[in-house]
Design brief:
This protein is α/β, with parallel strands linked by helices. The protein has helices at 19-29, 48-55, 70-83, 100-103, 126-133, 168-191; strands at 8-14, 35-42, 59-62, 88-92, 110-114, 137-144, 154-161, 195-198, 201-204.
């Protein structure tokens, strides 16, 4: 139930399997988030996210980045977003760095999820970085997107223990389970306009309520 709250229109950007996309789809379908995913965009023609979108009757596009600068590509993305009246964006395994063209058009309206406890292990292969560093605890982070990579204000983090027997694959699988919990929680807070951003800190309005 959304208690009469206006449903936010969400676009999800994905490049691969789309498991976080699926978690968001399921949460919105259950009415846990006052939002509707109305658009999925991918930069890879073979992305499984396209099939997930089709199975759930969500409009989806493959937009090739070939021959385009980041700014040119994001200008095309922005046109899609505006044409579909998008309020919020969720990056779900989108393997491109957004340019200021998009970030400035949607300030504090873009979420990303990263498989580490930022600011530790930004960038690619975060799970491998965690194992190589020898940390005992890692996890996932949902953050707002700013103009630096894996840097924006943190909304939610969930922790995962690192075991002596872990491989990159086993650790990644356990982190992914937590991602599927954290990302819907974060999108719910954003869609309910409950995030208050002060510098790098994010406060949750009415944090004692559900």
């Amino acid at each position: 139930m959304n208690n009469g709250q206006i449903m936010k229109r969400v676009a999800v950007f994905a490049s691969g399997r789309g498991t976080n996309l699926q978690a968001l789809i399921e949460a919105t379908k259950k009415g846990e988030i006052p939002a509707k995913i109305v658009l999925v965009i991918t930069d890879r023609e073979d992305a499984q996210a396209l099939r997930r979108a089709a199975q759930n009757f969500i409009k989806a596009f493959y937009l090739s980045p070939e021959g385009l600068t980041r700014e040119e590509y994001d200008t095309l993305l922005l046109r899609f977003l505006q044409d579909n009246q998008i309020d919020l964006i969720a990056l779900a395994g989108f393997m491109r760095i957004l340019s200021p063209v998009l970030i400035r058009a949607y300030p504090n309206k873009i979420l990303n999820i990263h498989p580490s406890l930022l600011p530790a292990f930004p960038g690619l292969h975060a799970q491998r970085q965690a194992l190589e560093y020898g940390v005992k605890v890692t996890g996932c982070t949902v953050h707002l997107v700013d103009e630096e990579v894996d840097h924006g204000p943190i909304v939610i983090q969930r922790t995962v223990p690192v075991y002596d027997t872990d491989t990159e694959e086993t650790l990644s699988a356990r982190i992914l389970e937590q991602e599927h919990i954290a990302y819907p929680e974060a999108l719910k807070l954003l869609a309910e306009d409950r995030l208050i951003v002060q510098g790098r800190r994010v406060f949750i309005r009415d944090a004692g309520t559900t």
